[in-house]
Amino acid sequence: MKTIDFYFDFGSTYSFLSVMRISDLAKQYDRQVVYRPILLGPIFKSLGWETSPFNMYPIKGRYMWRDLERRAEKWKIKFRKPDIFPANGLQAARVAVANAKESWCVRFIQEVFRANFELNLDISKEEVLISILRQVQNSDPRSILQSSVEPSNKDKLRQETELAQKRGIFGAPSFFIQEEMFWGDDRLEDAFEWGTGKN
Amino acid sequence: MKTIDFYFDFGSTYSFLSVMRISDLAKQYDRQVVYRPILLGPIFKSLGWETSPFNMYPIKGRYMWRDLERRAEKWKIKFRKPDIFPANGLQAARVAVANAKESWCVRFIQEVFRANFELNLDISKEEVLISILRQVQNSDPRSILQSSVEPSNKDKLRQETELAQKRGIFGAPSFFIQEEMFWGDDRLEDAFEWGTGKN
């Protein structure tokens, strides 16, 4: 089956919308989603930004939260503005990278995003991740957390982030159909249409 | 008739797409477009940017040009990447502000955008604006240019730009349905849908 590469950061607001929408679209377009967690932090740093542009520029931030609220309503996605923004998604990203091939991983990703953007939980906290892991799979959550911080897995996440930047990524969500890149939840349909003759 | 406020900058790439699309949409949604030229320069400066973010961050710029090309194709709009970016649209904006009530003004705006983004002409040049003015109206182009640089008209453009920023604008195009703001050509349909019960 043809694939769509889906790059996201667990703290990214518009990535939340895409995580909630992409599996239905993938069915509709008969594509397989390759979930690729990355860290926007190092990418933003290389552009000279110490935090999200939405925090650096309050006028942009105010608009983004209103826009997100409208978009969530449009797609019937439950949303509340989290108290912490951007959330630190490092540990969640490590778990997702280490367990990319597990059948429960997509649900893990979805539940972490819901925890952040619907339930207003702090996803940097171990107990939050443990509770999500308990919901979505049957192994010992602590051993999953432990194996995710092994040096080889930490490296893997770093490499994924570096590769993302090499491919031209400067924000999330970003989607690739082969080497054609689309940025933003508002380009998700365009990405799926790409190459079908409908774009 | 209900209105939509359409804020744009003559050098803005995505404003080009909106200028080419908005009059058809306005007919469809039975709205009157209020064209409101502003200058992004002073707004960007207040955010600490000396030029377009697309020039400050080449990785963003590369993506934007590709995205613009794809979007133009999608909407069947002729486009070529201009040699000068961002173009200096100061003089064109002054003409548009001074003549907002003239029936030819919308065509003037459209032709200036075409000059910049389809014909690769330098819209800061007087002869380019004169040639466009000749196309779209019957008065003396030079007297129109002269009256547009009168202090009261220069002030008017400055005030429009300041008002735009007060309303929350940080980029172009931006649209308002009353005080509800939408940013980007990709939110143009959403703006028209706003309040119709379809949004």
UniProtKB/TrEMBL annotation, chains A, B:
Catalytic activity: 2-hydroxychromene-2-carboxylate = (3E)-4-(2-hydroxyphenyl)-2-oxobut-3-enoate
Annotated CDD domains: DsbA_HCCA_Iso
Enzyme Commission (EC) number: 5.99.1.4
Residues forming the catalytic site: 12
Top-level division of the source organism's lineage: Bacteria
The DSBA-like thioredoxin domain, residue ranges: 3-189
Enzyme class of the recorded protein, top EC level: isomerase
Gene Ontology molecular function: any one: glutathione transferase activity
Keyword list, A-Z: Isomerase
Annotated GO biological process: glutathione metabolic process; naphthalene catabolic process
Assigned protein family: Belongs to the GST superfamily. NadH family.
Alphabetical list of PANTHER family matching this protein: GLUTATHIONE S-TRANSFERASE KAPPA, GLUTATHIONE S-TRANSFERASE KAPPA 1
Protein's recorded name: 2-hydroxychromene-2-carboxylate isomerase
